[in-house]
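Board notes (copied after class):
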Amino acid sequence: MRDLVGKTAFVTGGANGIGLALAQAFAEAGMNVMLADVEPGALAAAVERLRDFTPKVRGLVCDVTDPVSVEQAANTTFEEFGNVHVVCNNAGVAGGSGIDNISLDTWRWVLDVNLMGVLHGVRTFLPRIRAHGEGGHIVNTASMAGLESGLGFSPYATSKFAVVAMSEGLARQVNPLGIGVTLLCPGFVRTDISASARNRPERYGPAPVLDPESPEGRLAAESARRQQSGLDPSDIAARTLSAIRKGELYVFTHPEMHADVKARFAAIEAAMDEAAAR
């Protein structure tokens, strides 16, 4: 996908944060862009902002936890722009964690958005990309939390580990078909994901209230603080655009987190060496 001019991109979680930055990068590259999000007001503002770069941008409300909603969004996008070439399964939410308050509703919500939302995007768009035969690229947003367990017993980390496995497996199967896959694994980025409970549907119940003095509460506060001093989403988008053009699988944006990943790999290798020694 080196030549993106005139191609079409579909981006979930596109009203703000990394999704909006990706959409802007695509618009600046000469692509048609469809933004999908669950927040109508923010979505309208994002579409208006992107019209400064291209008139070929639209928005639609889409709930990635609902496969019917994603299918309808795909139908609308194909009707509006024709073939879709780049699909960014980017929508994501944070979720409280801990061993003292294991909320099944929170686990279901986070996994439904962060994992099943990615699956719904792949399941809906991949057959259409294969059918039109013009090539394509799928971008799945994971996280450095999908490579090391610093967040502890966490639905967020669990969902991102699963997205890593899903994307690596997908890449092996679709690359021979002329379809690329990029796995986006950023660290802390200046987004409002820590406030994602604002979009939590009623069917998942109220968000648990964390004790600020608990280990989970302190971890959430520290994560929110580090997030505000994180990378600008535009930096993530620029790196992702380059990866699409080069056909790269992995996008890492925080090399300072390498030590944490190496520590996990070292522990795994040590255990494997011990098993071999037996």
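Comment from the instructor: The longest helix spans residues 104-132. The helical segments are 17-28, 40-50, 67-81, 104-132, 155-174, 215-228, 233-246, 258-277.
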